[in-house]
Design brief:
single chain, about 300 residues, alpha+beta, Jelly Rolls, 7-stranded antiparallel sheet, 6 helices, about 20% helix, disordered N terminus
């Protein structure tokens, strides 16, 4: 593949039908909230409709087939070095609604925000939106990690969650999410770049986790699994003949039980990815200079 964003020849594709939200989504019980606090994850159903999921399925595939966001660093390989001349091993896209605004108007998105407010309160901020396309017959696994490991001193958030929503039924064989139950109550463990290569975007635990309390979470399309940013999690490979499509929204608050991060983690300071280089090159000159200054002050490599 080339490193430019592909476009369709002829007339633009028709935008799939997205259902008009009629409710704020599922309401969590006191027992569910307690289970989330205890286990670090929670499976919830009823976030969307089959009709909306079908429309999102089409929209999602178009985003990846057209390589939206590649030039801005929003599309990249999570577990291998970026290479413009080949397909990513495990493609990930940041902020896909920049390229398909319809994503912000779905029942799925409203349901996710409603769940986040029930868990974190109404002063939440949407700090993350990304899509992960795990190819069929893929050996690539999502490494074991904790989302807190990606934080920088500039993050300024103390409590965050991710809401992981599949756009098709997901099984153990197709790469469902896996969690270490209760790890949200423990420490943040040391991380590293996959294969100890700082040119790769992703992170993994420096030492394999204890799998005694490992739980796999298969689920149907239209449902979601919510996890805390301290929960150790990963996902298996996709041995099926269809892509495994996951859409993730993250929310955070600036008040909570954790302290603000005062020092950047060494595994983030060493990163030197092609994704960041593309992102930097796409910025206006003044913003690019400011970004470089912030990186210098943090001690981050160039």
């Amino acid at each position: 593949m080339s490193d430019h964003v592909a476009t369709h020849a002829g007339a633009p594709p028709r935008t799939p039908s997205i259902s008009t939200p009629t409710s704020v989504g599922p309401r969590l019980s006191a027992d569910q909230i307690a289970a989330f606090r205890r286990d670090g994850y929670l499976l919830v159903g009823g976030l969307s409709t089959p009709e909306e999921v079908a429309g999102l399925h089409t929209l999602y595939d178009r985003l990846f087939s057209e390589r939206r966001g590649w030039e801005n660093g929003d599309l990249f390989d999570m577990v291998d070095r970026d290479d413009a001349n080949r397909a990513p091993v495990l493609p990930q896209m940041l902020w896909p609604s920049r390229y398909e605004p319809a994503l912000t108007k779905t029942k799925l998105a409203l349901s996710a925000r409603s769940i986040a407010e029930q868990l974190l309160g109404n002063k939440i901020e949407n700090i993350l939106e990304h899509a992960i396309m795990k190819p069929p017959f893929s050996v690539a696994e999502t490494p074991w990690h904790q989302d807190d490991a990606f934080a920088h001193t500039s993050s300024m958030f103390t409590e965050s969650i991710s809401i992981w929503m599949p756009l098709q039924d997901v099984t153990v064989a197709s790469g469902c999410m896996r969690y270490i139950r209760g790890s949200n109550l423990g420490p943040l463990f040391p991380h590293r770049s996959p294969n100890n290569d700082p040119r790769i975007h992703g992170l993994e635990l420096a030492s394999p986790p204890d799998l005694t309390n490992c739980v796999a979470v298969p689920m149907p399309a239209g449902s979601a699994v919510i996890h805390h940013s301290r929960t150790i999690h990963g996902a298996g490979s996709n041995s099926g003949d269809q892509p495994r499509r996951a859409y993730i929204l993250g929310y955070a608050v600036k008040t909570g039980p954790r302290q603000f991060l005062t020092r950047d983690y060494p595994w983030n300071l060493e990163k030197q990815t092609a994704r960041e280089q593309r992102e930097m090159a796409a910025l206006p000159p003044l913003q690019r200079t400011a970004r470089r200054l912030r990186r210098l002050l943090r001690g981050q490599k160039f």
